């Protein structure tokens, strides 16, 4: 009996010790954050073509405030609101970006402690009370009606893991290391039609360097030179050059390539009234005083006889399509970043101002119908009512004339339409080109015409 009682006591003590050990022993705790590892961040976002807006917010330590880059689809067109709603070539690029966002998952939980946010770089750039350090890049993608499809903060790169970045959702504490390959460029030039002039160097047949200077006080023009460069039999020559001279082939090739590949680094909207006037085929269109002031601020002036000229001369480009481009070079554009690309206010020093040589560019196009000589018309078109087996010699001759004249008419129509489309793009904007492009286009006779090398 006593042995049984002892046994019961020992068993009870053992059970008690086991319970105490269970209660006080360290436990492996699995945070809720670990439970969703491997899941998609945005499971309801499955179709990249739903995306109609991309907004990227970054914190600018220079200004101490967030700056935004946005591309959106409104009123039937893609635009960049941060750049005066300049037309964006955004559909395919945004769909590709959206597809990358759809693919990101919660790979590896790292922290849910707010004190780690600065180290991981996932502080919301819109957070008003945080300091400047540790701010991330907030990316928001929306669909029709402003529906938020994705909204997340991208932080620093995971150390020694180039393809992993720290990511946090703005309304959640958890931070994850996430594998991502997403093109999130906020460079203005990455989102626009890069071919400004839409021409190729092979179609250029003549270039005119109109070298002059404007006296801004008297509006008088100091004409310094006019250099016409023509392509004949695959060789460039300058009108008026001497027998012992030739066109510098290296600089000519450089000039043609620059025209072919000319891109812009910034835009400014022209006043609405001025833009509408420029779109009209009406030389008598009126220009208001505010339009004149806008032009002058960019380096463009009307002379006493009503000609629009620029303070750094102009370049005329003739193509075999009958399109004549006029490129007018204006004032220097100071600053960097958004100050250049969008004209936003930015403080700059005398040193940066001196280094800034970007230039305003005013572009227009016109159609030169004389580039296509009108062929003779047929004497009659009675052949159209006959079977071609019944055509006489005169009918065949008239048919050939008829076809040639129609071909001429199509070239004229196509050239005129091209000019209309170009001016619809050019009329609303002052463009900004890089200093490198300006230097390659802004040439003189001294640059282009050189002495022949002795062989």
Overview of this protein structure:
With 455 residues, the protein is an alpha+beta fold. It has 2 domains: 32-190, no CATH class; 201-451, no CATH class. 28% of the residues lie in helices and 29% in strands. The protein is built from 12 helices and 21 strands. The protein has helices spanning 2-24, 32-35, 91-102, 117-120, 249-260, 272-279, 289-297, 338-341, 350-355, 393-426, 435-441, 445-448, and strands at 53-60, 65-74, 77-80, 86-87, 108-111, 137-142, 148-157, 164-168, 175-179, 204-215, 220-232, 235-238, 245-247, 266-269, 300-302, 308-310, 314-319, 323-333, 358-367, 429-433, 449-451. It has a 9-stranded antiparallel β-sheet. β1 and β2 (65-74) form a beta hairpin. The longest helix is centred in the C-terminal third of the chain and has 34 residues, at 393-426. It is globular and about 90 Å long. The N and C termini lie far apart (129 Å). Residues 20-30 and 346-354 have low confidence and may be disordered.
Mean of pLDDT: 86
**What structural class results from the helix and strand content?**
alpha+beta
- pLDDT < 50 runs, ≥5 residues: 20-30, 346-354
Instruction: State the separation between the terminal residues, measured CA to CA.
Output: 129 Å
Task: Count the E strands.
Answer: 21
Physical arrangement of strands within the biggest beta sheet: 4-3-2-1-6-7-8-9-5
Task: Tell me the fraction of residues in β-strands, as a range.
Answer: 25-35%
How many domains? 2
Largest β sheet strand count, sense and barrel closure: 9 strands, antiparallel
Task: Output the number of helix runs.
Answer: 12
Molecular shape:
globular
Radius of gyration: 34 Å
Helical coverage, percent range:
25-40%
């Amino acid at each position: 009996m006593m042995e049984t009682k002892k046994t019961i006591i020992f068993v009870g003590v053992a059970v008690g010790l086991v319970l105490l050990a269970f209660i006080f022993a360290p436990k492996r705790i699995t945070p809720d954050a670990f439970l969703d590892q491997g899941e998609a961040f945005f499971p309801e976002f499955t179709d990249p073509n739903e995306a109609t807006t991309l907004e990227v917010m970054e914190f600018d330590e220079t200004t101490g405030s967030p700056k935004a880059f946005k591309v959106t689809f409104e009123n039937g067109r893609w635009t960049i609101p941060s750049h005066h709603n300049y037309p964006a070539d955004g559909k395919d690029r945004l769909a590709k970006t959206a597809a990358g966002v759809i693919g990101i998952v919660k790979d590896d939980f790292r922290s849910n402690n707010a004190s780690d946010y600065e180290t991981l770089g996932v502080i919301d750039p819109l957070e008003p009370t945080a300091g400047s350090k540790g701010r991330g890049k907030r990316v928001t993608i929306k669909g029709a009606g402003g529906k938020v499809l994705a909204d997340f903060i991208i932080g620093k790169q995971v150390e020694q893991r180039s393809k992993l970045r720290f990511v946090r959702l703005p309304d959640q504490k958890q931070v994850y290391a996430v594998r991502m390959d997403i093109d999130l460029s906020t460079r203005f030039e990455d989102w626009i039609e890069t071919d400004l002039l839409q021409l190729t160097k092979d179609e250029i047949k003549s270039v005119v360097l109109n070298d002059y200077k404007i006296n801004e006080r008297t509006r008088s023009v100091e004409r310094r030179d006019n250099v016409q460069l023509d392509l004949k039999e695959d060789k460039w020559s300058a009108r008026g050059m001497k027998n012992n001279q030739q066109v510098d082939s290296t600089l000519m090739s450089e000039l043609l390539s620059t025209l072919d590949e000319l891109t812009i680094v910034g835009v400014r909207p022209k006043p609405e009234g001025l833009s509408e006037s420029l779109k009209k085929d009406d030389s008598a269109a009126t220009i208001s005083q505010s339009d004149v002031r806008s032009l002058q601020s960019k380096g463009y002036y009307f002379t006493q006889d009503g000609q629009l000229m620029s303070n750094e001369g102009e370049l005329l480009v003739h193509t075999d399509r009958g399109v004549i481009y006029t490129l007018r070079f204006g004032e220097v554009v100071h600053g960097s970043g958004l100050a250049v690309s969008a004209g936003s206010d930015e403080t700059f020093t005398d040193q940066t101002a001196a280094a800034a040589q970007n230039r305003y560019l005013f572009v227009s196009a016109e159609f030169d119908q004389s580039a296509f000589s009108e062929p003779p018309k047929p004497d009659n078109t009675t052949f159209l009512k006959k079977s071609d087996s019944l055509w006489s010699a005169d009918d065949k001759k008239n048919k050939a004339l008829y076809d040639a004249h129609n071909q001429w008419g199509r070239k004229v129509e196509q050239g005129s339409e091209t000019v209309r489309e170009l001016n619809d793009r050019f009329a609303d904007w002052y463009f900004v080109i890089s200093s490198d492009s300006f230097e390659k286009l802004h040439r003189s006779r001294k640059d282009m015409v050189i002495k022949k090398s002795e062989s």
